[in-house]
C-alpha cells in the first residue's frame, strides 16, 4: 500500500505541472477575456453616460440660448417702443410750440382750439397711435376717441389695478419736463379687456399743458413673437434635432412638422399613456427641466421613439419651448462603439493567447526538468519519511491516551462529588435498619422509610451516570432543550468545582425551549465558568459572585421595503451572560484570551485550550458570537469590577 501511494505521488509530481500549467493558461486567458469584457462594458457605460450628458447639455444650451434671445429682444422691444413714443410726442410738441408761437397774441383759448384740431386726426403705428392732452390740474383737453372726456377732470381716473395714472404723470412732471409711465387700459376697438399700455408724457410749460401718446405692449409683442417663432422654426441640429413651442393652452405654435402648427394637442399622449403636452406645459410652468417620453415621430424615420426633452417656460408669453434627442441615436452610437471595442478585444485576446502558448511551452520544459529532480529527492528521503511517520503515530497514540485519561479523571472527580451525599444517605439508612434490627426496635414505618431513602439515592446515582455518559457522548445531535434544564445540567456537571470555593452563584433564567447541540453548548459554558472560578484564586475578594443569566431576546425588523409597503418580521436569539467580580482581565491580554494555547496560568495548571475551544464551539459549531469585556457594576449598593462574557445564539 505504501509503495502504491508512493508511485501515485511521484506520478502526480511528474505530470501535475503539465496539467497545472494548462489550467493556469486557461484561467489566465479567461481572466484576461473577462477583464476585457468588463472593460468593454465599462467603456460602453462611460460612452453612454458621456453621450447622454453631452446631448442634455446640447439641448439645454440650445433652449436656454433661445430664451436669452427672447429676453434680449424683449429689452430691445421696450427700448424701440419708448423711442418710438418719444419721437412721436416730440413731433406733437413741435406742432404745439409752432402754433402757440404763431397765434399766442390771439389768446390761449384760440391757441388750444388750433392745437386740438391739428392733433386730433393725427395717427401712426398702423392707425393705433394718437395724441391726447390734459393740463397740469388733470383736466382733459384732447382725447380723439373719448371726446366726452374733454373739458372734464381726469384726476381720479384709475386703471383696472387701481392705479391713478394721471395723478402719477402730473406728480412726476412737477419736477421734470418728460416722463414715461405704464398702466392698463382698454383698446379703442375692444372695450372689454384691458391691456398694458406704455405712455410718454412731455410738459409744455407756456400753456401748462401735457402732451401724451401711448402704445399697447401686446401690439409690439405679437410682432416679436412672430419673429421669434420664425427664428425657432429654422433651428435644427444633427439628423433629428429641432425645437418646438406650445402655448399654455396646448396649441402647437412651432414644430418641424408644419402640419402640427395651429393644432391643439393638449391631450397628446405616447403609447404608455404619458400625457406629453400636459407634462411639457407643467414642466414649463415650474420653470425648466428634463422629461422623457415616447416621441411621436423621428424626422429621420417618421416613426415613434423614446425621447429626452429639455423644457423652458416663458411665463409672460405663456410659452413652453423645448428641444430633445432620441435614444435611437444613442443606440446607433453605442452599436458603433461596441463593434470598435469588440474588435480591439479580439485582437488583444489573440495576442494574449499567442504569448500564453509560448510561455506554456517554456514552463512545461522547466516543469519536466524539476519533476525529474524531485523524483530523485523522493527516492532518497523515502525511508526517512517512513520512519518519521511511524514515530509521529506513536506520539499521537500517547497524546490521545493522556487526553483520554485527563478527561476520565475529571469525569471521575465530578462523579465522586455527585455520589458523595447519596452514598452517605444509603450508608446511614442501612445502618439505621441494622441497629434497629439488633435492638429489636425496628418498626414497619422506619423500615419502609429507610428503604425509600436507599431507593431514592440509588435512582439519583443512576441519573448521575446517565448525565455524565450523555455529556461525553461523541455523537453530535441537535435536539430541543429547555433553558432551565440547560442551567441545571451545567451546574450538575460542574458542581465539584464550586465546592468549598465560597462562591455565590446568582442566576436569572428565562424559561423557554430551543434547539441546539446540548453537549457542545454545555462544554463552552463550563469552560467560561472554570475560567471565572480560577480567576478568584488569584484575587482576595471577601464576596465572590458569579452572575449567570439566560434570556430570550426578540427584536422586530422590516423587510421587503423596496415595495410600496414594509413587512415586519421578528428576530429571536438567546443571550447567555456570565459575569464575575474577580477584577477583570488585564487590557493588554483581553484580546488574546480566545487564541489557541494562550494562558496566564502556570504550565501545570492550564493549557490555554479551554477558551479557544469555547470560541470555536460558539462561532463555528453553533453559528453564534461571543464577546468578552471588563465591566464595573453595582450589586447590593457596592461597586465591583469583573469580566463579562456574552454569548449570542440565533433561535430562528
CATH architecture heading of the domain at 475-650: 2-Layer Sandwich
Number of strands: 18
Coarse shape: elongated
Largest sheet: 6 strands, antiparallel
- Say which CATH homologous superfamily of the domain at 475-650 is assigned: Histidine kinase-like ATPase, C-terminal domain
CATH topology of the domain at 475-650: Heat Shock Protein 90
Structural class: alpha+beta
**Radius of gyration in whole Å, from Cα?**
52 Å
Written account of the structure:
There is one protein chain. The chain is an alpha+beta fold and 652 residues long. It has a domain at 475-650: Histidine kinase-like ATPase, C-terminal domain (Heat Shock Protein 90, 2-Layer Sandwich), CATH 3.30.565. It is 52% helix and 23% strand. The strands form four sheets. Strands 6, 7, 8, 9, 10 and 11 form a six-stranded antiparallel beta sheet that branches. A five-stranded antiparallel beta sheet has the order 2-1-5-4-3, with helices on both faces. The protein is elongated. It starts with a helix and ends with a strand. Mean pLDDT is 81; it is low at 399-404 and 602-607.
In short:
The chain has 652 residues and is of the alpha+beta class. The chain has eleven helices and 18 strands.
